[in-house]
Design brief:
Layout (H helix, E strand, L loop, with lengths): L10 H28 L21 H7 L2 H33 L6 H13 L4 H10 L17 H12 L3 H9 L4 H12 L1 H16 L3 H6 L8 H11 L18 H30 L8
Helix pairs in contact: 1-12, 2-12, 3-6, 3-9, 3-11, 4-6, 7-8, 9-12, 11-12
Subcellular location: Cell membrane
Keywords: Cell membrane, Membrane, Transmembrane, Transmembrane helix, Transport
Family: Belongs to the binding-protein-dependent transport system permease family.
Length: about 290
């Protein structure tokens, strides 16, 4: 005897699922088209024509763009900013949040009030630019890392998450002779793995997609990030000025396929990282939302 109950499909379900499917396909369609264009062989490429799947496959555009010094320089710059920036973001955010949870911290409420105040009011673009300039960080990768070591929203969420951790465990560790750094490293961080994974993904995506600050602070084209280079290729058509034109003569693939390949290469790393952090990310997005 089967006790499985089959849910009756209503008209609302049909309409709902149909709309969700259309929205999903519409979001996926541009990515598939750009990927298809980047894999199209130059022998069958026709400008301003649409093909969902290439008639003839080729990796020439990827080989071409990966052989250019400008793309490799942009990739190295973006990797450095993303890895170093994300690690420093985690270090400063979690250590400061842990400090704000300690009631023994002098003027703790005042410091937390300043954090909340900065969430509502900011200095603005021009003071930030002059700050970076006066610190001598212009045309330096640190101009994209140091001014954003942490932010008010991350501090508030991580602090709320740490407040929800069991206080008894930390007090027991201190009674046994564990220092504040020992409690932070041996208890707080292991219990904060979902939050660490989620915020690492947040920070990494933010650094990887750095565009405006890189365009404003990096004046040397050899230090451009991937996003600035892709923008230059797609919108400004400045491939020759940025060194993208490799001297390989007539064997160069069409410019449209090169631009599409650059776009795909710029978004692939984040797509590869997300599945490995998805388990912790699902838990981490809820950190600080429930206390008790």
């Amino acid at each position: 005897m089967s006790f499985v109950q089959h849910k009756k499909i209503t008209l609302f379900d049909i309409v709902n699922y149909t709309l969700l499917a259309i929205i999903s396909v519409s979001c996926l369609f541009p990515f598939v088209y750009v990927l298809s264009l980047s894999l199209t062989d130059r022998a069958v490429y026709v400008p301003y024509t649409f093909h969902l799947f290439p008639e003839k496959w080729s990796l020439a555009a990827y080989a071409y763009i990966l052989s250019s010094d400008s793309f490799l320089n942009a990739l190295n710059s973006t990797l450095f900013i993303t890895i170093v920036g994300s690690i420093l973001n985690l270090a400063f955010t979690f250590t400061m949040a842990y400090g704000l949870t300690e009631k023994r911290l002098p003027h703790r409420k005042w410091i937390y009030g300043i954090v909340v105040f900065s969430l509502v009011f900011s200095a603005g673009l021009i003071p930030g630019f002059f700050l970076v300039k006066e610190l001598g960080l212009m045309n330096s990768y640190w101009a994209l890392i140091l001014p954003s070591l942490t932010n008010a929203w991350s501090l508030i969420v991580v602090k709320s998450f740490m407040d929800s951790l069991p206080v008894e465990v930390m007090e027991s560790a201190k009674i046994d002779g564990c220092t504040d750094l020992g409690v932070f490293g041996r208890i707080i961080l292991p219990l904060s793995k979902p939050a660490l994974a989620a915020f690492f993904l947040f920070f990494a995506v933010a650094h990887w997609n750095t565009y405006f600050n890189a365009l404003m602070f990096l004046t040397d084209s050899k230090k451009w990030t991937l996003q600035v280079l892709v923008k230059s290729l797609v919108l400004d058509n400045r491939a020759s000025t940025s060194g993208m034109e490799a001297s390989i003569g007539d064997s160069a693939p069409p410019s449209e396929t090169v631009r599409s390949a650059a776009i795909i290469l710029a978004i692939l790393p984040i797509l590869f990282i997300y599945p490995f952090l998805q388990k912790h990310f699902a838990k981490g997005v809820m950190v600080g939302s429930v206390k008790g």
